[in-house]
Amino acid sequence: EEAVEKVVSWQEHEHEEQWQQQRLSTEMSAAMPYEIMAVDIRSVVFGQNSIANRFRNGLPLSSLVDDLAAHRVDPMIHQELVLDAVYIPEGPNGGVYVSLDNRRLKCMKMCYDEHGHPDQVRLKVFQPPHFARKMLRTLCSPLPS
Q: Between the CA of residue 73 and those of 12, 35, 118, 121, what are the distances in Å?
């Protein structure tokens, strides 16, 4: 239960940039259809070039990495680890999923790099209209993996 409480706090945002991104995600939830899906973690990219190294409650990102590594939390089970994302179908190698929850994605990618899991993440994928995809592609370039 303690791990679940910590996971909920990982949704909070440290900086204005993350808060704005969360607001966009909330507005998209209300305005756009979405689909929950499991995808290979390597197919999800970050929506911004930098992130805070701590969650808003002060916990370091390593606390979630540790919980993931020890299997105390599982992104395929815990609702709090479903990442909001946007699917942009145009790209050099086909489509790309752009995360709006970058700290949690970073933790999952760190755990994957160190321990080989999780190899799948669940995304709440929004498919914005064409004009929004163009805007997002511009805002998110270059997209680190």
A: 17, 22, 10, 12
* Mean pLDDT, residues 42-66 taken together: 91
Alpha-carbon span 40 to 18, nearest angstrom: 24
User: What strand order describes the sheet that includes 120-126?
Assistant: 34-40, 120-126, 83-88, 96-99, 44-46
Q: What is the mean pLDDT of the chain?
A: 78
d(CA 138, CA 102): 18
Q: How far is 121 from 127, CA to CA, in rounded Å?
A: 18
User: What pLDDT does 9 receive?
Assistant: 47
Helices 16-31 & 102-115 angle (0-180, nearest 10): 100
**What distance lies between CA 116 and its chain's CA centroid?**
18
Pairing of strands 83-88, 120-126: parallel
Pairing type for strands 44-46 and 34-40 reads: unpaired
Asked if 44 and 124 count as a contact pair (C-beta separation under 8 A), the reply is no
